Amino acid sequence: MPSKVAPSKYKPGTRSYTMSRIRGKETSIERLVRSYLFARGLRFRKNDKRYPGHPDVVLPKWRAMVFVNGCFWHMHEGCAKFSIPKSNVEFWTTKLTRNRQRDQEQGSKLRAMGWRVFTVWECQLDATHRDKTLDELYQAIIDPDCQDESIKAPIQTKE
Ligand SMILES: [Zn+2]
């Protein structure tokens, strides 16, 4: 039976400390996306609690939403930044698979409500890729006919 509690081999506080650090990182990529879109003249709501998944950016005028996903927490498949940790494999597999499943369910609900749902990945926002990624996102948002929600900027693939 897979354990649902945090693995006990870590010293108390260590894992949550690491998790908060990783979450903090995610927050800064959200901020990067928001300040870029704002600078290009878009106005939006943040982390709107009325919608499944609390989208990071909600643009009612464009019927568009943006999720900014950390590659680890949202299991970015094929990405160099994502792999299941070597220890406590079962714990992490269960937890991260659940995250991904939730993302997919939330996305379907939002699309059914008539939203275009864009996802931008952490690795698409590194120093090398961010300009292209952000421009592509902006262009997709302001094109109401754009139903293709995948941002094509390259991801860092595994060797
Ligand atoms: Zn990635």
From TrEMBL:
SUPFAM superfamilies, alphabetized: Restriction endonuclease-like
GO BP, sorted A to Z: mismatch repair
Enzyme class: hydrolase
The protein's role, per its UniProt record: May nick specific sequences that contain T:G mispairs resulting from m5C-deamination.
Stretch forming the signal peptide: none
Protein name (database record): Very short patch repair endonuclease
Pfam families tied to this protein: Vsr
Family designation: Belongs to the vsr family.
UniProt cross-references to NCBIfam families, sorted A to Z: vsr
MF terms in GO: endonuclease activity; hydrolase activity
EC number(s) on file: 3.1.-.-
Entry-linked Gene3D superfamilies: VSR Endonuclease (3.40.960.10)
Record's keyword terms, sorted: DNA damage, DNA repair, Endonuclease, Hydrolase, Nuclease
Organism whose genome encodes this protein: Bifidobacterium [indicum] DSM 20214 = LMG 11587
